[in-house]
Write a structure and sequence with these properties.
Layout lengths: L2 H10 L14 H8 L5 E10 L5 E7 L10 E2 L2 E3 L7 H13 L6 E6 L3 E2 L4 E10 L12 E8 H5 L5 E7 L2 E10 L2 E3 L1 H13 L4
Parallel strand pairs: 1-7
Antiparallel strand pairs: 1-2, 1-4, 2-3, 2-8, 5-7, 6-7, 9-10, 10-11
Length: 201
C-alpha cells in the first residue's frame, strides 16, 4: 500500500487502543425513527487488500436473507457474547462470511459508530488484508465478493447525494456505483464517515 495513502488513512482512524463508545454518529436521526431503545452491538470489517492500488473488500448479500437481501455490505454482523470486542466480532464474521483467515488481517483502527435502521450500533473496523489472502464466500450468506479501489471512493465525482422518504421522514442519503454494483445505505454512510475523517468529503 502506498505510504502517503496509508498515512492519510491511519491518521483518520480512531486508534485500536481507543475504540468508539456510546451512540452512533447518526443517533439523532435514528432516534427520530426508532426511539431510544437500546441498540444491539455489531461490527463490520473495512478490509483493504494490499497492493499498488489498495482495494476495499465488499460483499453482495444472498437474495434469500431476511434482512438487507441482495445489498452490498461489508463483511460483519452482530456481536456474540463470546467476542472479546468489536475487532473480534469483525474478524469472526469475516471468516464465517468470506473465508478470510485472521492471519491475513492487520487491524488499523476504527471509524465512528453507526446506527442502522434494523436496530444495531455498528463499529467499523478498518484493516489491511494481505495481497495473497484467499476469499471463499459462504453461499448461504454471500452471493458475491468484489473489490473496489480505495481511490474510487476518494474521487468526489463518484459520491452521489440524494434524499429518500422513509416512514414519513426525508433522509439525506449517499451512494456510489461501481462496476454495476450500487453501494448505498449503511455501507455508503460508513464510507462517507471515512471520507469525512480523511478530509475528503
Amino acid at each position: 500500500m502506498n505510504a502517503p495513502l496509508l498515512d492519510a488513512l491511519q491518521g483518520a482512524l480512531r486508534p485500536l487502543a481507543d475504540p468508539p463508545q456510546g451512540p452512533g454518529w447518526n443517533h439523532a436521526e435514528m432516534a427520530e425513527l426508532l426511539g431510544d431503545a437500546p441498540r444491539r452491538p455489531a461490527a463490520v470489517l473495512l478490509g483493504l487488500r494490499e497492493g499498488v492500488q489498495p482495494r476495499l473488500v465488499l460483499t453482495v448479500r444472498n437474495d434469500s436473507l431476511q434482512s438487507h437481501a441482495g445489498q452490498v455490505a461489508f463483511p460483519g454482523g452482530r456481536s456474540d457474547p463470546d467476542d472479546a470486542d468489536a475487532v473480534a466480532t469483525a474478524l469472526r464474521e469475516s471468516e464465517e462470511e468470506i473465508g478470510l483467515a485472521r492471519h491475513w488481517v492487520t487491524p488499523l483502527g476504527f471509524l465512528d459508530r453507526f446506527e442502522t435502521i434494523s436496530g444495531y450500533t455498528v463499529t467499523p473496523v478498518v484493516a489491511r488484508v494481505a495481497a495473497s489472502a484467499l476469499l471463499r464466500p459462504a453461499p448461504a450468506e454471500v452471493a458475491e465478493v468484489f473489490e473496489v479501489p480505495l481511490e474510487f471512493f476518494l474521487e468526489p465525482a463518484n459520491l452521489r447525494r440524494y434524499t429518500m422518504e422513509f416512514r414519513g421522514h426525508r433522509r439525506p442519503m449517499v451512494e456510489f456505483v461501481h462496476g454495476g454494483h450500487r453501494i448505498w445505505g449503511a455501507t455508503a454512510a460508513m464510507l462517507l464517515n471515512l471520507l469525512t475523517r480523511m478530509g475528503r468529503a
